[in-house]
């Protein structure tokens, strides 16, 4: 079984968000517990498993994502990484459709190697801010939104970019919140910055203390900041230690996420492991 490690939402190695990518032969997925053990061994925020589908299927490949602890409904960076592997190995070209827990997702590779994902827009529902949330994050919360079933996170607006960048949340307290994870965000501090907003993602409840670049979070960030800034197309900087840029384009119920990727490791899982 061949495993590749791909840095997604970056144009250089050792930045962006690393994802494991496993391309399987046609047929059903291996048993769930085997997929979970492999993801735990790879020990990245997500490992993607994909296999080709018959020609008459609604999509080209079936796709699933696992953190080291659990399977998730939606993952942007590992989908981008999978599309990158399919394109660079010649297994697919142009637009690839993935059948997933979140419906059919499309990934289109451009001539320059950039990849655009077509994902469902997260439905934002504003929720009341309580003392528990502010205490868990260690910062004043300006607004909070539930992001719906597919994403499953809490989107939290903080005072400014500096607050987002310097945040040191109580991860044990964050893990007790009733969401998959917490996205924190603020508007870019400088108007001439090469990005419009910043964010970070914390998901200790699913084995991810901090995710370097979270594609799925940007399906929630896009409608929030497009409404605030009055533009459909924006660029988000995820201000983790590795950093990464995600270009977002809001199309109503769909959000386009564009980025690049780099393969950094190509190896084999030993037979019988």
In short:
Belongs to the PhzF family. The chain has 273 residues and is an alpha+beta fold.
Q: What is the tally of beta strands? A: 18
Low-confidence stretches: none
The number of helical segments is 7
CATH class of the largest domain: Alpha Beta
Instruction: Output the structural class.
Output: alpha+beta
Global Rg: 18 Å
Biggest sheet overview:
18 strands, mixed
The domain count comes to: 2
Task: Give the SSE string.
Answer: EEHEEEHEEEEHEHEHHEEEHEEEE
CATH architecture annotation of the largest domain: Roll
- The H-level CATH homologous superfamily of the largest domain, spelled out, is Diaminopimelate Epimerase, Chain A, domain 1
CATH topology of the largest domain: Diaminopimelate Epimerase, Chain A, domain 1
* Distance between the ends: 10 Å
Principal-axes shape call: globular
**Estimated share of beta-strand residues:** 35-45%
Compute the average pLDDT.
96
**Considering DSSP H and I runs of 4 or more, what fraction of the residues is helical?**
10-25%
């Amino acid at each position: 079984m061949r495993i590749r490690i791909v840095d997604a939402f970056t144009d250089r190695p050792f930045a962006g968000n690393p994802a494991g990518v496993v391309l399987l032969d046609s047929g059903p997925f291996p048993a769930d517990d085997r997929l979970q053990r492999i993801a735990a061994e790879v020990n990245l925020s997500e490992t993607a498993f994909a296999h080709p589908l018959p020609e008459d299927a609604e999509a080209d490949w079936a796709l699933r994502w696992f953190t080291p602890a659990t399977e998730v409904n939606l993952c942007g960076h590992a989908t981008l990484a999978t599309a990158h592997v399919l394109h660079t190995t010649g297994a697919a070209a142009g637009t690839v459709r993935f059948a997933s827990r979140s419906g059919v997702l499309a990934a289109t590779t451009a001539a320059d190697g950039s990849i655009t994902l077509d994902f469902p827009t997260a439905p934002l529902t504003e929720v009341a801010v309580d003392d528990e949330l502010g205490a868990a994050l260690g910062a004043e919360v300006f607004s909070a939104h539930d992001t719906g079933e597919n994403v499953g996170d809490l989107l939290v607006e903080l005072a400014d970019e500096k607050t987002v960048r310097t945040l040191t949340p109580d991860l044990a307290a964050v893990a007790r919140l009733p969401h998959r994870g917490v996205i924190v965000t603020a508007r870019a501090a400088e108007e001439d910055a090469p990005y419009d907003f910043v964010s970070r993602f914390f998901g200790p409840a699913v084995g991810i203390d901090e995710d370097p670049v979270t594609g799925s979070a940007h399906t929630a960030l896009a409608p929030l900041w497009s409404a605030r800034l009055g533009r459909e197309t924006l660029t988000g900087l995820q201000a983790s230690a590795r950093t990464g840029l995600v270009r977002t384009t809001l199309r109503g119920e769909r959000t386009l996420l564009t980025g690049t990727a780099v393969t950094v490791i190509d190896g084999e899982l030993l037979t019988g492991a």
